[in-house]
Automatic annotation (TrEMBL), chain A:
This is Two-component system response regulator. Residues 125-225 form the OmpR/PhoB-type domain. Gene3D superfamilies: 3.40.50.2300, 6.10.250.690, Winged helix-like DNA-binding domain superfamily/Winged helix DNA-binding domain. Residues 125-225 bind DNA. The modification 4-aspartylphosphate is found at D52. SMART domains: REC (SM00448), Trans_reg_C (SM00862). Keywords: DNA-binding, Phosphoprotein, Transcription, Transcription regulation, Two-component regulatory system. One of its GO terms (biological process) is regulation of DNA-templated transcription. InterPro entries: CheY-like_superfamily, OmpR/PhoB-type_DNA-bd, Sig_transdc_resp-reg_receiver, WalR-like, WH-like_DNA-bd_sf. It comes from the Bacteria. GO terms for cellular component: cytosol; protein-DNA complex.
Length: 226, 479
């Protein structure tokens, strides 16, 4: 069962979520502040980070940025503020998904599983594909550009694998949400847009005029043509 | 009512006054001057003629040749204008001119000349030429009886062309003076009209600017006349209006923020409670019955509270105009099918979904709309429930119909109001009471309409119409 680190300052939420997840078999560690959470990260080595946005001292966005600097740890934001502004800020900082409080444990768990699910390569392809300057290793789940390995968050990796598996095919935001985030109906196009933006910053030569991930206004995104 | 503008009316009134005064002055002046000119010429002529006749009367002969000589003498003394002298005695007609009689002398004058010893005169206009005709009877002085008419009458006919020229000059002088005067009067008329109209125009501009929402509009006040009083009054009213509106807006913003803050604050404790409700539900089976009921009650109510708080948050986002539409082009049938499928309604709801309808909408919000209407139909109406999609012109029409008793007519107008209770006895419905209000807001955000009605054969029907090309798409298509 996945190991989850929960950083949340409110005691009742912390205890409630911990109780709920533990009952479902997760190993859970909690921290009340961003600083103590970052300290627990090295020692506890979780599979996923559940992160509250509003924390005393160091806030969730700062924690998220710090984690993203040197790690591909999946991160889900836990936020009491579902307004666009907060959600987008959190996603831009590198989170893979977000959950608006209050949420039932089954919802939290479903999101955790979706983010953690192994990224499966469609069969019959070589494990390492080359697209322009990009080398995508579907088995090893690594992406390199000009021989240099890129640090991609899980959602960015999944999105890139999904798009590059069918080059030149156009996917709508809704389709991408369902395949990459497994969000089904309560999907949120902001997740897709934010993730595409982050991915472009990492793989494109000039993020302003993308070569790999192209936008089709009114339809969605596609990989290539290169 | 009046076909002219204020400016035209002011200028016309001004010109009319100027024309009347100039015209009256010119007419009076002309009349006085004309009669003065004519009278002086006439007096001179009459006096001089009478004097000549009187002087020569005793020696006037009656045979035509001598008389004619005498008439030439009299005519040579004529002043101020040359005159032609005629003499009449019985049937004798003699003149100093070419013809023995004059066509200018009237019968009136002849009669008057015979009866009036002092003589008489008459002004006659013939063929456009004015003449002065003077008739003087020749009298003899009789010691006791005074003067006696001899029957000889002398007439003088004087052309008054020079006087007429003078009078004509007067007329043209009056006209030449009045017309430039009128033209010059146009300038102060325009100035006056402008000085009145400028504040009026400013006032109109300010009023329409206020009407379009710029409540800080003010007019600059100049001078102390009635128009500046009006401007001052306008400014004061505008300031008062702005204060009231500001106060209202502040109060409204406070209320909105309060609702939003309350909802936010409720979310955190609810997050903890909701996360453990499954624990409560799972363990309730092992507890004693009363405790189990209490535990299940808490669990259910927590769920409802969470829904209510979410709905309140959504409503306050609509109120604060913070709700955004993230549109995408989707297949209408597929979208509805997903909504039904994810809520496990697909075997309870009959769906008539034509394939291949592409529509631009926000999938999340459209899902909320359909889910809410179908959920209501299942909860308040009775099965079977039908969802029907169709295209009417540029609109996507979504109909949700149930087979229940329908909605009572007195309830229909209020059904989209917040927390409206269709059944007064049921104090709390299964939903939050905000569902239809949120549905309506979501449809509005798409630029569409939603209405509720009863089908002729019973059952409530909700009809949602949204533009196929998304909000503003219709205008784009027309442009």
């Amino acid at each position: 069962m996945p190991r989850v680190l929960l950083i949340e300052d409110d005691p009742s939420v912390r205890e409630g979520v911990e109780l709920g997840l533990r009952r479902r078999g997760h190993e859970v560690r909690t921290a009340a502040t961003g600083e103590s959470g970052l300290a627990a990260l090295a020692e506890f080595r979780p599979d996923l980070l559940l992160l509250d946005l509003m924390l005393p001292g160091m806030n969730g966005v700062q924690v998220c940025r710090r984690v993203r600097e040197d790690s591909q740890l999946p991160i889900i934001m836990l936020t009491a503020r579902g307004d666009d502004f907060d959600v987008v800020i959190g996603l831009e900082a590198g989170a893979d998904d977000y959950i608006v409080k209050p949420a039932r444990t089954e919802v939290i768990e479903a999101r955790i599983r979706a983010v953690l699910r192994r990224m499966e390569a469609p069969g019959g392809r070589p494990s390492v594909e080359f697209h322009g300057d990009l080398a995508v290793d579907r088995a090893g789940l690594t992406v390199a550009k000009n021989g240099e390995r890129l640090a991609l968050a899980p959602s960015e990796m999944k999105l890139l694998l999904h798009l590059s598996a069918a080059p030149e095919q156009v996917f709508s935001r809704q389709q991408l949400l369902e395949h990459v985030w497994e969000h089904s109906y309560h999907g949120d196009a902001r997740l897709v847009d934010a993730c595409v933006r982050r991915l472009r910053n990492k793989i494109e030569d000039i993020p302003g005029s993308p070569r790999y991930i192209q936008t089709l206004r009114g339809f969605g995104y596609r990989f290539g043509p290169l | 009512m009046v076909p002219f503008g204020l400016r035209t009316r002011l200028v016309l009134a001004f010109l009319l006054v100027a024309a009347v005064s100039a015209g009256t002055t010119a007419a009076l002046t002309y009349r006085e001057a004309r009669s003065a000119v004519l009278r002086s010429a006439q007096d001179t002529a009459v006096a001089s003629f009478r004097e000549q006749v009187q002087t020569l009367a005793p020696s006037l002969p009656v045979e035509p040749d001598s008389l004619r000589e005498m008439l030439f003498v009299i005519a040579s003394k004529s002043k101020p204008q040359p005159w032609i002298v005629f003499a009449e005695y019985g049937s004798l007609r003699v003149s100093s001119g070419d013809s023995p009689t004059s066509s200018v002398i009237t019968a009136d004058l002849r009669r008057a000349a015979l009866t009036t010893t002092h003589g008489s005169f008459q002004r006659v206009v013939k063929d456009g030429v004015p003449y002065l005709t003077v008739g003087v009877p020749v009298v003899v002085r009789n010691g006791s009886a005074g003067r006696l008419p001899t029957g000889l009458v002398l007439f003088a006919v004087i052309r008054m062309t020079e006087e007429q020229a003078n009078v004509d000059a007067l007329v043209s002088a009056a006209r030449d003076g009045a017309l430039p005067g009128l033209a010059v009067a146009l300038i102060p008329a325009l100035l006056a009209a402008r000085s009145v109209l400028r504040p009026v125009r400013e006032l109109r501009g300010a009023a329409s600017s206020m009407g379009s929402g710029r409540l800080d509009t003010r007019i600059s006040v100049r001078g102390r006349d009635e128009l500046s009083d009006l401007a001052r009054t306008f400014n004061e009213s505008a300031a008062q209006l702005q204060r009231s509106v500001d106060e209202l807006q502040r109060a409204e913003a406070r209320a909105r923020r309060f609702a939003s803050d309350v909802s936010h604050e409720l979310r955190t404790p609810l997050a903890g409670m909701l996360a453990v409700t499954e624990v409560l539900d799972e363990d309730a089976g092992g507890l004693d019955p009363d405790t189990a009921r209490a535990v299940r009650l808490i669990s259910t109510e927590t769920g409802k509270l969470a829904v209510l708080v979410e709905d309140l948050m959504e409503i306050s986002r609509f109120d604060a105009r913070a709700a955004e539409l993230n549109t995408d082009e989707v297949d209408a049938a597929e979208t509805v099918r997903k909504t039904l499928h994810h809520r496990h309604w697909h075997d309870r709801v009959r769906a008539e979904l034509p394939e291949g309808v592409r529509v631009r909408l926000d999938p999340r919000r459209f899902d909320v709309v359909v889910a809410n209407l179908v959920g209501n139909a299942l909860r308040h109406g009775s099965e079977p429930v039908t969802v029907r999609l169709s295209v009417r012109g540029e609109l996507l029409v979504t109909e949700v119909a149930d087979s229940g008793p329908g909605i009572r007519p007195e309830v229909l107008p209020h059904i989209f109001e917040r927390f409206y209770k269709a059944d007064a006895a049921r104090t709390r419905s299964a939903g939050s009471g905000l569902g239809l209000a949120i549905t309506q807001e979501n449809v509005r955000l798409h630029g569409g309409t939603v209405r509720a009605w009863n089908a002729p054969d019973g059952g409530a029907v909700f009809t949602v119409e949204i533009p196929l090309r998304g909000p503003g798409g219709a205008q784009e298509a027309m442009a």
